[in-house]
Structures are given as structure tokens and as C-alpha cells.
Amino acid sequence: MDGSNALVAVVPTRGRPQAVPALVEAFHDTCEANTLLVLAVDNDDPQRQEYEAATQKLPPTPMAMVALSGNGGNGMVRALNNVAALFAGADDPAAAVAFLGDDHRPRTVGWDARYLQALAGGAAMVYGNDLIHGEGLPTQIAIRSDVIRALGWMAPPMLRHLYVDNAWKDLGAAAGPGALVYLPDVTVEHLHPIAGKAEYDAGYERVNAPAMYEADRAAYERYRAEQLAADAATIRRVVTHG
Fold first, then answer.
1. By CB neighbour count within 10 A (0-12 exposed, 13-18 middle, 19+ buried), where does 214 fall?
2. Residue 60 — pLDDT band, cuts 50, 70, 90?
3. 145, 206 in Cβ contact below 8 A?
4. How many Cβ atoms sit within 10 Å of the Cβ of residue 130?
5. Under 8 Å CB-to-CB from 96, ≥6 apart: which residues?
6. Which of 52, 138, 175, 206 could lock onto 127 through a cystine, CB 3.0 to 4.6 A?
7. Residue ranges covered by each domain of the chain
8. Model confidence, pTM
């Protein structure tokens, strides 16, 4: 894969191997750029072997599976950051790394090319319409690799799972006009129970537990107060000077 024009789409996932065929089919039907789909699966996921089996019976879509140790189902941030670091910090780094949940489905043909185009045009981050929040929240996103390297992460590491999209939105706004671009005509649908598009399962219950909400809300507020301004300045520096 030529990293200079590549998009790596990271999907942290646990306990949902049944989601893989539809996700891969959506990528197969919509990707037009040099895009790699990477499933980030915990080593201790009881259904890890089912993920491996699922990936062997799918359309010819560029994809990989990275097994992660030590995450233990504690949310997607650690998994996302670990895999993003592999591709953003490689000798031949990807142009950008995207995050999608295992309940996101790209619907717009060429969505990946549009993301890369926006980032090549000067944006640091870009997201599309998830058909739930629209412009309000980037529940899926792509971020330039040089921005990830400069920040040292793709999602604020003090978070575990929740409020990450809020943090991305705040960071883009603080970094200034054009740093975070929304593409309203690019649909990456979020099949979330909040919109009646999926049933609550054990995974949703685990990461949406009251204790998780409380901990991540407090961490998010701390991030906004203590680190957001510095990170926004970092993005401005990267976008301006490379």
C-alpha cells in the first residue's frame, strides 16, 4: 500500500463478529480510494476466532485484523490509538487514519476519496453525515497522519469510549476555520440503538453503563479545561507549517 495516498479505516470491535460481513460489504461497494479496513480486536475477546473465520468468507476488500492485548473490552480509545499509531507512524505512513464503529456503514460511493480530498485541501479532520447527528457530532472521522503524530494520539487518551466525538468537535472548532470539515452529502450511517437502528446488546450496555458515562464525562471536562487549547495550537501549527 502506498501510504502517501492511503486511508486506513480502523474499526475497534468486540463481541460482534456478526457485524463484519455487512461492514466489509459496505466498504467493498463504496470505496474508490486506496483504503485499508482494519479490524481492531482484543486478544481476550471470546469471539476472536469467529472474527478470523468471518474475514475469510468476504468480498475481495483490502482488509486486515490487528489483535490487541491488554484492552479487555474497556472501550475503543486505547484500541483506536494503538492501531492508529501503527499506520500514522510507519516508515511509509498512511495519508490519514479514519475511525468507524462496527455499527457504521459507508453509504456514499467514493466517501473515502472525498475524505482524502478534504484533508489534502488543508483540513486536519473530516467527517460525514451519520444520519443521526449530522453536523452536530463526528461519530466517524478521518484525521491526517501528521496531525495524529503531532498530537501523539487519535482520540484523547484520558477517555475510554464516550465523549470522543464531542472532544473531536471541540478540538476542530478551537483549531480554527477549516480545521474540521463536515461533508453533508457524504453518508456514513450510524446504526445505533439511539435511533432505533439496532438492538441494545451486551457491548452497548457495557460501554454505556452509568459508571462509564460518569468517568468519561469527567475526563472530557478535564480535557477541555486542561489540554484542548494546547492541542488546538498543535493542529494549527501542523496545518500551517506541515
1. exposed
2. confident
3. no
4. 25
5. 7, 8, 115, 116, 119, 142, 143, 144, 145
6. 138
7. 3-241
8. 0.94
Which residue's entry shows cell 468476504? 58
Residue 174 C-alpha cell reads as 478551537
Residue 73 has pLDDT above 70, yes or no: no
| C-beta separation of 37 from 62 below 8 A | yes
The cell numbers describing 108, all together, are 456514499
CATH number, domain 3-241, options 1.10.10.10, 3.30.465.10, 3.90.550.10, 3.40.50.12240: 3.90.550.10
Query: For the stretch 154-188, what's the b/e string if a residue is b when 16 or more beta carbons lie within 10 angstroms of its beta carbon?
Result: bbbebbbbbbbbbbbbbbbebbeeebbbbbeebbb
d(CA 190, CA 198): 10
Q: Give the C-alpha separation, 88 to 93, whole Å.
A: 5
DSSP string, 118-157: HHHTT-SEEEEE-SSSGGG--SSEEEEHHHHHHHT-SS-T
